[in-house]
Design a protein that fits this description.
The structure holds two protein chains of two kinds. Helix content of chain A is 36%, strand content 25%. Chain A is α/β, with parallel strands linked by helices. The radius of gyration of chain B is 20 Å and the shape is globular. Classes of the chains: A alpha/beta, B mainly alpha. Chains A and B meet through loops of A and helix 1, helix 7, helix 8 and helix 9 of B. Bound molecules: adenosine-5'-diphosphate (ADP) and magnesium ion. Adenosine-5'-diphosphate (ADP) binds next to strand 2 and helix 1 of chain A.
């Protein structure tokens, strides 16, 4: 599109405490286009966006903006304690004749506006009471409604459900039709190819490609992001996950009749050493709750958990001692301690084991941390870097390292690849595979069916907190899983 | 189903946070009225309101500070300093007596605000330093407290503290007007929204374009100024700049704000709640005085228990 640019960036470099986040980046956004910004985690996408919006000042280079920019940042950036409507209109509230905020009108306007985004919650309730997806939609509505010429979306769909993703893509289309230029950051290829005109690829802080998206084959795009040749990727992509796990080996984890009202109603799961068992099911089918019940983080109304045949007492500490570790779904609230260093975050769970009489051996710590940083290929400037400064994929690896250094026998992984890009995702998946091959028993929870089908040796399908089916070998197909879910739905309909 | 449970839980939290102190106040008043014949007398009630008005003025500023996620430990000392400055200034007429404490205390608040907003020093530390500073300054200008400045009984300034309308002292009206204004500012202006956003999620607030530094500076300046005003009013009422008052008053102010339902961690709170918190504490003090045989230190014991209950409830209900 040969129109004049609304944003033009030339030769921008930005360094954080020794980490070069952007080096000599060029980027041009034309009026009215939808521009995909892609790259592996840590490639510098979010940093580039913060340079564009003026939150970061570049060390060198030029940034030219022409028009108002409105941004939806990667993590929901609203105020949870304030009402939905207050968040939506913060800084541009409707006024009464006396110059005071007109609350009635603000609430009415907010309700009307948000219904267009499929949100029907009470706009006067605190934003924090909404689901994460809904919050993201409020952030979207806020960004879109500010009469901007440019709207930037940094991984807006990472916390959305499929239905909400559709709403979001509709909004993008409408914005596009009204002539607003959009920068769209996502690692979901489907979305990119559906809505974007052009693409810029960042790799290790450099802009390595810029051009029309449609002419670019997907595999080519991935290879640009990863910096590896297409052949290599194709070869890697065919690595088989599934291996035979002999039914005669003793299960290391046996959960029988797990019940924790209201979400878990009599679930049985067994995992053998070296096996990856996937938990499939719709959102809200009790997958996370099942994992939490196994590790003792949820009170049980019934059922037992056995590790290598021995019952485990019902608390997280005992479960950890028995060799169960869990990587929680929400790394921001349930795992990462942003202000501590990478080293401190990694050794946190292993401290009891690393200390003697309460004194913690620093050299032991350093050795373990170095091992994991190398082994999991965690990108850090030093082990003392604050975790908050890492990209999502690297934060996830830090968490994984934390649990691995407790030397677990059973690893419960809840959405381990959520919100991280394709490159890091492939790495984490490969890592899971590798760990299983070393004899770890893995329970894998994922909303992405393909990830489960690729990664798991066996699938337990949940519906309404109960097992709707178990699939193995040749049954590990999309159809079988959907059937397992659907069959239950039909039974349900019959019984009413 | 989980939706409705979280909704009702949220509603319950809201009611208890908003109305918990109000319910306690109504019960306290009703019981005291029945048990202590003197409690309900107009004189006693007027006195109660007057005593409460000084604390209310300080707590109003504290409400804003706490909603931004901060704390102001200097208000007790600043309050005492304000009183001394007013008494000293009264030699030079009404305006000096009123404005001198407002300006000096406002400046102390401004410095608090600047330090907190521009450096990343914790409000706790900064205002602890100004607590010491203000108390020290007070001791310097009063010869280590040996010199108590008196205010001429017939001066206009004394009228400000002792004058009445229908028996209700002027400070009551001043506090009432300020609290109404404070409520409007908090809920109906951009500044008020910025106060909530600052305390609710500082990083998000930055990205939403909230001027963090400005908001904090204003809030601490207001807190200092209001503490100075409360000191000046107290001096006018007592007809002298008493040097030993205000010790630990910052803790009373924090307590009433929190009892009134403002979250100590910031982001949520109301001026009305604070006013109710002030009333509650003052009624408890009044009743303990009426019992007579009880040591007045029980005031602190009872306030402490109340505060603990409220904080524990906030914690439990927010699960
Ligand atoms: N505020 C910061 N301080 C230090 N390092 C940072 C900061 N923000 C980003 N980085 C580093 O810059 C690099 C690029 O990060 P980011 O722009 O978030 O990547 P992306 O959004 O593409 O995943 C990463 O290595 C990250 O650790
Ligand atoms: Mg990012």
């Amino acid at each position: 599109m040969p129109t004049e640019p609304v944003i033009e960036v030339a030769g921008v470099t930005k360094t954080f405490a020794g980490v070069r986040a952007l080096s000599d980046v060029d980027f041009t956004l034309h009026r009215g286009e939808v521009h995909a910004l892609v790259g592996e985690n840590g490639a510098g996408k979010s940093t580039l966006i913060k340079v564009l919006t003026g939150i970061h000042t570049p060390d060198s280079g030029h940034v030219r903006r022409d028009g108002r920019i409105s941004t939806i940042y990667q993590e929901v950036n609203l105020v949870p304690l304030m009402s939905v409507s207050a968040n939506l209109f913060l800084g541009r509230e409707p006024r009464t004749r006396f110059g005071l905020i007109d609350r009635a009108r603000r609430d009415a306007d907010a309700a009307e506006l948000l219904s267009g985004y499929g949100i029907t919650a009470d706009v006067r309730s605190p934003l924090g009471t909404l689901a994460v997806g809904e919050q993201q939609m409020v952030a979207l509505a806020r960004a879109v409604e500010t009469d901007a010429d440019v709207v930037i979306m940094d991984e807006p769909t990472s916390s959305l459900e499929p239905r909400e993703v559709e709403t979001l893509l509709d909004v993008v289309r409408k914005l596009h039709e009204s002539g607003i230029a959009i920068i769209y950051v996502s690692h979901r290829m489907d979305e990119l190819y559906r809505i974007c005109d052009r693409v810029t690829v960042l790799r290790d802080g450099r802009s390595v490609h810029s051009g029309p998206l449609r002419d670019l084959p997907r595999i080519e795009l991935v290879s640009l992001m990863l910096g590896r040749s297409v052949n290599e990727i194709e070869k890697h992509g065919t690595t088989a996950f599934g291996e035979d796990h002999h039914a005669d080996t003793q299960p290391v984890l046996e959960a029988r009749g797990l019940t924790s009202k209201p979400r878990v109603n009599g679930v049985d799961v067994t995992i053998r050493p070296g096996e990856v068992v996937g938990l499939a099911g719709l959102l809200g089918s009790g997958r996370t709750e099942t994992a939490k019940a196994i590790i003792g983080a949820l009170p049980l109304d019934g059922g037992t958990v056995l590790v290598a045949g021995t019952p485990v007492p019902r608390n997280v500490k005992a479960a950890t001692r028995a060799g169960i570790s869990m990587l929680a779904e929400d790394r921001k609230t349930e795992g990462i301690i942003p202000n501590l260093s990478v080293r401190e975050n990694i050794v946190l769970a292993a401290l009891p084991r690393l200390s003697r009489f309460g004194v913690i051996s620093r050299s032991k710590q350093d050795r373990i941390v170095d091992t994991f940083i190398t082994r999991l290929r965690i990108k850090v400037s030093s082990p003392e870097q604050k975790v908050a400064e890492l990209s999502g994929g690297n934060q996830q690896k830090v968490l994984l390292a934390r649990w691995l250094c407790t030397e677990p026998r059973i690893l419960l992984l809840d959405e381990p690849t959520r919100g991280i890009d394709v490159g890091a995702k492939a790495e984490v998946q490969a890592l899971i595979d590798e760990l299983a091959r070393e004899g770890l028993a893995v329970l894998l929870i994922s909303s992405e069916l393909d990830e489960l089908l690729d990664g798991a040796d066996r699938l337990v399908v949940l519906r309404d907190g109960a097992v709707a089916g178990e699939l193995e070998g040749a049954e590990l197909t999309r159809e079988h899983v959907l059937k397992a879910i659907a069959a239950e739905v039909m039974d349900d309909a019959d019984s009413h | 189903m989980t939706m409705t449970t979280t909704r009702t839980a949220a509603a319950r939290t809201k009611v208890l946070q908003r109305q918990g102190a109000a319910v306690a106040l109504v019960l306290m008043v009703a019981v005291s009225w029945l048990v202590f014949p003197r409690f309900g007398s107009p004189d006693n009630l007027r006195d109660l309101a007057l005593q409460g008005s000084f604390l209310a003025v300080i707590a109003l500023g504290m409400t804003f500070v706490i909603i931004t996620g901060g704390i102001d430990l200097s208000v007790g000392s600043v309050y005492a300093l304000g009183g001394v400055l007013a008494a000293w200034g009264s030699q030079h007429g009404f305006l000096v007596a009123l404005l001198l404490p407002l300006v000096v205390c406002g400046l102390i608040g401004l410095v608090n605000g600047l330090l907190i907003a521009r450096t990343s020093m914790a409000p706790f530390i900064v205002t602890l330093a100004s607590l010491l500073f203000a108390r020290g300054l007070l001791l310097v200008i009063t010869d280590e407290g040996a010199n108590t400045y008196q205010i001429a009984a017939d001066s206009a300034f004394v009228e400000l503290g002792r004058g009445t309308v229908f028996g209700f002292g002027y400070p009551i009206f001043i506090a009432a007007v300020l609290c109404v204004l404070g409520g409007v500012v908090l809920n109906r202006t951009s500044f008020g929204q910025n106060v909530f956003a600052t305390g609710g999620a500082e990083q998000s607030a930055v990205l939403m374009g909230v001027p963090l530094a400005k908001t904090k500076i204003i809030v601490y300046t207001a807190s200092g100024t209001l503490a100075g005003l409360a000191g000046a009013l107290t001096a006018a009422y007592l007809q002298s700049g008493v040097t030993v008052i205000g010790v630990g008053l910052e803790l009373d102010a924090i307590a009433v704000v929190v009892i009134g339902g403002t979250l100590l961690t910031g982001g949520m709170g109301t001026v009305l709640g604070t006013v109710i918190g002030v009333a509650l504490i003052k009624v408890i003090q009044n009743v303990i005085n009426q019992i007579g045989t009880l040591d007045s230190n029980y005031q602190s014991v009872v306030s402490g228990v109340f505060l603990l209950v409220v904080v524990v409830l906030q914690r439990v209900l927010r699960r």
